[in-house]
Amino acid sequence: MTMDTNTTEEQILEAAKKVFRAKGMQGARMQEIADEAGINKALLHYYFRNKEKLFMAVFADAFLQIMPNMDQIFSSDRSIEEKISVFIEAYINMLSAYPDLPIFILSEARRDPTILFEVLEKSGIKPVSITEFILLEMEKGNLVRMNPSHMMVNIVSLCVFPFLARPLLETVILKKQGVDPAEFYNIRLEEVKTFVLRAVIPNYSES
Amino acid sequence: MTMDTNTTEEQILEAAKKVFRAKGMQGARMQEIADEAGINKALLHYYFRNKEKLFMAVFADAFLQIMPNMDQIFSSDRSIEEKISVFIEAYINMLSAYPDLPIFILSEARRDPTILFEVLEKSGIKPVSITEFILLEMEKGNLVRMNPSHMMVNIVSLCVFPFLARPLLETVILKKQGVDPAEFYNIRLEEVKTFVLRAVIPNYSES
DNA sequence: GTCTATACGGCGATAGAC
DNA sequence: GTCTATCGCCGTATAGAC
User: At what angle do helices A51-66 and A114-122 cross, to 10 degrees?
Assistant: First the structure.
């Protein structure tokens, strides 16, 4: 995406992203961020006044990146089956590129839930109601009848959870069953797709 | 479960559970645990030598509680459909009773992945291969053919994720769509059951 | 076993020269 | 804008009386 330009402020921000995402707010050290940026600790306070401010910049960036923009995909003119398939593919691919984002977001949101409100205010979010669209497709018989919120949460769950639980999966579950983690993640995209479509598309097996 | 007996050590452990689970290793303060236990800070170090030791006791306890013991449920003589249904119900009910366990476990495992190995060694875990059982049911035509690991991970994902993402769900998604969080969690159990069964039981819709 | 008092180190933040 | 040096707090851990 945005190559780190050479301005000091952006160097700091890139370094902060790296360290905060890896260690979290409480685990990160201002010294480590300064080292990573190749500058001095005092400069951090010159550009961003304190640790909290610097952290919020990083968190806001991460938050916007992980919020699924369903509307864009769902406003295309494909069939509902294709839309769901495309969404899952896009979301899992994004998560594969930034696998540490989900646990970072949720850990910090749990530590201090107020940061969610803060981010939501600063960046106008679009409360596009995908719900109505889903209900419409159910009316038409293109989707199984179920609660739309749960349908959405279910799809996101299946995409995100393996990234959240990665340490657990790798050291416990998969290892225990003799499964190669790399292979597991390789085939996951297709497995999720068919699992979801079987659950939400009427008579999907026969199609 | 175990009522807090009056021995000081257990009072400390109960207090530590409460504080560590709520704040995490880095957010917890020894002083707060001491206050919660109604004793002095120095006593914490008398019983458990340092913060790390006390934390590990709490983490191990939480870990054992959250590890799904599928084997017990899956070794019953019910049909596969009933087994899955019972498992989902048992697991979601357990999580509802201890909703902060999942994010606690995963946050700490991410902060220091080695604690997983530590816990696994201290408490002999049973690597019961549920995989073979699943494959057998697929052979018999009672389950849709898919990768067994992913089937298991999918089911767990749907159960656990809403608890992990609760702050996000409540402040962003649900609020955005005008959904009452309490109502959402109330109906979730049934929604997950039918969603999973539709995905894994052949011709479930017609049954 | 339980307490009070204190030592010790780490880290965020600031002062101030250049 | 960038640096060095240092302050001051906070939190873990220990010393030692009872």
Answer: 70
pLDDT for residue A127 is more than 80: no
Nearest CA in chain A to B185: A150
DSSP string, B156-201: HHHHHHHHHTHHHIIIIIIHHHT--HHHHHHHHHHHHHHHHHHHHS
DSSP state of A135: H
pLDDT at position B127, please?
66
Domain ranges of chain B: 3-54, 66-200
* CA–CA distance, B160 with B185 (Å, rounded to integer): 12
Q: Is A140 helix (H, G, I), strand (E, B) or coil?
A: coil
Say which CATH topology domain A3-54 has.
Answer: Arc Repressor Mutant, subunit A (1.10.10)
Tell me the percentage of chain A whose pLDDT exceeds 70. 95
How crowded is the C-beta side of A46, counted as CA atoms within 13 Å? 9
CATH fold of the domain at B66-200:
Tetracycline Repressor; domain 2 (1.10.357)
What gap in Å lies between CA A20 and CA A117, rounded to an integer? Answer: 20
Measured between beta carbons, the chain A residues lying within 8 angstroms of B129 are: 177
**Pairwise CB contact (< 8 Å): A131 & B202:** no
Nearest protein residue to nucleotide C11, judged by CA and C1' positions: A29
CA B151 to chain centre: 18
